[in-house]
Inverse folding.
């Protein structure tokens, strides 16, 4: 993955031919032209859980169009960091009750969540470009 600076507070990542642009809110000096990096981090958790929910439904021929995931985050007042996250899976009335617990289980299998629960070691270094 390559990260570049596009001017202002815009920072862009290039990943497998995809462009992922971030910006900061106006209150933080940006133009709010894209989600902030932290918002993308939070979105990656919810969308990862969503992939697992969608795959579960697809494998059982259950329509997923009326299912929604709502993600709620509580923050520490001092640090501003998350202290708890909740993903609520909103199911339509006709969702098969026998799959409710299994759906909750598969949402928890999300690889992004797993990486948070078992964080990697980070190394940051600076090198001179050629």
């Amino acid at each position: 993955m390559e990260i570049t600076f596009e001017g202002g507070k815009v920072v862009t990542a290039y990943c497998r031919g995809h462009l992922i642009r971030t910006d900061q809110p106006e209150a933080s000096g940006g133009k709010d032209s894209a989600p902030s990096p932290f918002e993308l981090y939070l979105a990656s958790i919810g969308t990862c859980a969503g992939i697992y929910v969608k795959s579960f439904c697809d494998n059982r021929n259950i329509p997923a169009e009326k299912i929604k995931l709502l993600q709620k985050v509580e923050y520490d007042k001092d640090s501003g960091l998350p202290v708890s996250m909740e993903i609520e899976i909103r199911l339509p009335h006709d969702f098969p009750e026998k799959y409710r617990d299994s759906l909750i289980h598969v949402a928890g299998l999300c690889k992004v969540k797993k990486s948070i629960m078992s964080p990697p070691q980070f190394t940051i270094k600076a090198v001179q470009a050629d």
